[in-house]
Amino acid sequence: MDKNSIRPWGKTELALAYTQGFMSERSALNWFNTELSNYPGLMDKLKDLGYTRGQKILRIAQVKVIFEALGEP
């Protein structure tokens, strides 16, 4: 992992990074939320790290867990 990529990310910013800007912000965020929900055990890990629905900024620990599950964008 690039050490510069492990930082707090805005949720929309990260969603757009994963979709490489090919979707609108809303569509990218919908896609990202679906991916987080569908990946086995990922939401449980994120919730253990303090993730709440509607959270706009993802903490470093949460970003690490997402990158481990989905790979880096």
Characterise the protein shown here.
With 73 residues, this protein is mostly helical. It starts with 8 loop residues before the first strand and ends with a helix. It has helices spanning 11-18, 25-38, 42-48, 60-70; strands spanning 9-10, 57-58. The model has no long low-confidence stretch (mean pLDDT 94). It is globular, with a radius of gyration of 11 Å. A two-stranded antiparallel ribbon has the order 1-2. Helix 1 packs across helix 2.
Please outline what is shown here.
The chain is mostly helical and 73 residues long. It contains four helices and two strands, in the order βαααβα.
Layout of SSEs?
Blueprint lengths: L8 E2 H8 L6 H14 L3 H7 L8 E2 L1 H11 L3
Antiparallel strand pairs: 1-2
Task: List its traits.
single chain; 73 residues; mainly alpha; two-stranded antiparallel ribbon; 4 helices; 55% helix; 5% strand; globular
The strands making up the biggest β-sheet line up spatially as 1-2
> What ranges have pLDDT less than 50 throughout 5 or more consecutive residues?
none
* Overall mean confidence score, pLDDT: 94
Which percent range describes the beta-strand content?
Answer: 5-15%
Largest sheet: 2 strands, antiparallel
List how many beta strands DSSP finds: 2
Number of helical elements = 4
* Class per helix and strand makeup: mainly alpha
- Helix and strand succession? EHHHEH
CA-based shape: globular
Residues in helix, %: 40-55%
Task: Please give the alpha-carbon distance between the first and last residues.
Answer: 11 Å
The rounded Rg comes to 11 Å
